Amino acid sequence: MKIERPRGTRDFLPEEMERRREVERRMREIAESFGYREIATPTFEHLELFTLKSGEGIVDEMYVFADKSGRKLALRPELTAPVMRMFVNECSVMPRPLRFYYFANCFRYERPQKGRYREFWQFGVELIGSDSYLADAEVINLAYRILDSLGIKFELQIGHVGILRSILSSLGTERASKVMRLIDKGDKEGLLGYMDEIRVEQDLREKVLSIIDMKGDEGVIEEAKKLISFDFTHLENLSRILRELGVEFELNLGIARGLDYYTGVVFECYAEGLGAQKQVCGGGSYELSSLFGGPKTPSTGFAIGFDRVCEVCDAKVKKRTTVAVISFKGLESHAFRIADRIRERGLRVVVDVMERSVKKQMSFASEISADYAVIIGPEEIEKGVVTVKDMTTQEQRAMKEEEAITTFLSRMRG
Question: Hey, which CATH number is domain 14-312, 3.40.630.30, 3.30.930.10, 3.40.50.720, 3.40.190.10?
Answer without folding.
Answer: 3.30.930.10
